[in-house]
Amino acid sequence: MDQFFKLAERKSSVGTELRAGLTTFLAMAYIIVVNPLILMDGGVPMTAAVTATCIGAGIMTIAMGVFANRPLACASGMGINSVVAYTLCLDMGLGWQTAMAIIFIEGIAILLLVLCGLREAIMDAIPVTLRHGISIGLGLFIAMIGLKNGGVIVANEATMVSLGNINDPVFLVGIISIIFTVIFSSMNIKGSLLWGIIIAALCGIPLGVTAAPSSIVAPLDFSTFGAPFMPGEDGVMGVVKALTTPTLLLFAFSLMMSDFFDTMGTAMAVAKPGEFLTEDGRVEDIKPILIVDSIAAAVGGALGASSITTFVESASGAADGGRSGLTSICTGVLFLLAAFFSPIIGCISSAATCGALVYVGFLMMSEVTEIDWSDIIEGFPTFMIIVGVPFTYSISNGIGLGFISYILVAAVTGNIKKVRPLMWVAGIAFLAYFLLL
To answer: Which residues 6+ apart lie within 8 Å of 14 measured at CB?
Structure first.
């Protein structure tokens, strides 16, 4: 085991990896409940959506651990599941089978781009400063997700965002998770992020945030498996309709752009605390990561779980000491078990994970010193990524704003030769993506 996962080389241990896997799982466990609730609005049966979410996440996370050997976990991505339910199914009137076929097609398309080397080549073409900006932007994004989950920040019509209600039990659990995570981390206690989650969850019991499970075991329902090859809303097989309808192919392209760059940013976000990010901002051995992630998107559509992608919450496990694929395998096994015990897993509130995500965001801010803010060609596009990712609540949108800004600033300052050909490709693709939104 040590030889396969390179534990000694990466200064880790079996115990550390298993603990980190549990930390990642707890930080992601909300998807077991949230994804089925969203997909149910689009017509996907609730019990089937739970089964597909858990099985899909479990299989692809284990695959990530075995083939990429990095502490990255996969599950149905937030954002794309909303597009499936509310845009494709409710607004456009498509059957969920057709919507899943679109997801399946975009996953296959991304896989082909990875296999031909384009996805990796685009990552290599990104200027070093922009890579640092992606990591910083992801750090703020992760922290924002944590603060939102913990009720520390809430939506406000007048100011867009404001401080949450300090008397709200969710707010209290979120603050408790931050306080204990920081205390344990300051004391160099092993598993500080995990302990922060556990203590916050326990404190949530008397506060009514950590609810008692309605049952222990849930039945499995495989009725969504093979969704793209089932008849859709008009009796036509989902994948056939998706391939023969130009409008749906455009949706597949839009979703592909989102998946394409979301994973790029997520890999960099996890690579920083996981210690597999090089000094020039490159993710070591990224191709296996991209291959598994691309297959995961197609598998998500095939199972009826929406697009499965690498989760940015994986950074919590990496920050808790996870360095190898053993972390991912532990997380994946827990997802498979959760398919049977989802009522119990669902009791861990997202507020309890607030501290872990905020602390990861803090760790990722260190790269801000690597940026030359006096150089507008490097500074301004990087700034657009840093603010764009959290403020638009989208990794791909933030990266797109930065890429387009980089080309624009390079052009008006007479430095157009600095823009590599694949940066032009990515910038034009993002422009088309924004126009299609």
So the answer is: 1, 7, 326
pLDDT at residue 367, rounded to an integer: 80
Which tokens in the block code for residue 250? Answer: 């455009």
Count the neighbouring beta carbons within 10 Å of the beta carbon of residue 4. Answer: 11
Q: What is the secondary structure of 202-216 as a DSSP string?
A: HHHHHHTSSPPPS-S
Q: Which of 100-114, 288-302, 362-376, 401-415 has the lowest mean pLDDT?
A: 362-376
- d(Cα 125, Cα 422) in Å, to the nearest integer? 6
Question: Which of these, 20, 424, 413, lies nearest to 195 by C-alpha position?
Answer: 20
Give the DSSP H or E segment for 239.
helix 238-244
DSSP code, position 229: G
- Helices marked H in 91-127: 96-115, 118-125
Angle, CA of 21, 24 and 30, to the nearest 5°? 135
Residue at 82: amino acid letter: S
Residues in contact with 368: Cβ distance below 8 Å, sequence separation at least 6, in sequence order: 132, 136
Question: pLDDT tens digit string along 257-276?
Answer: 778 788 888 888 899 899 89
pLDDT at 437: 66
Give the pLDDT band (50/70/90) at residue 89.
Answer: very high
**Residues sharing a CB contact under 8 Å with residue 408, sequence separation 6 or more, in sequence order:** none
Sign of torsion, CA 67 69 75 81? negative
In DSSP terms, 163 is beta-bridged to: 153
Handedness of CA 235, 236, 242, 245 (dihedral sign): negative
Residue-range domain boundaries for the chain: 8-367, 368-436
Q: Return the amino acid letter for 107.
A: G
Lowest-confidence pick of 201-205, 243-247, 362-366? 362-366
Please tell me the pTM assigned to this model. 0.81
Residue 311 makes CB contacts below 8 A (sequence gap 6+) with: 24, 28, 31, 72, 73, 74, 75, 77, 266
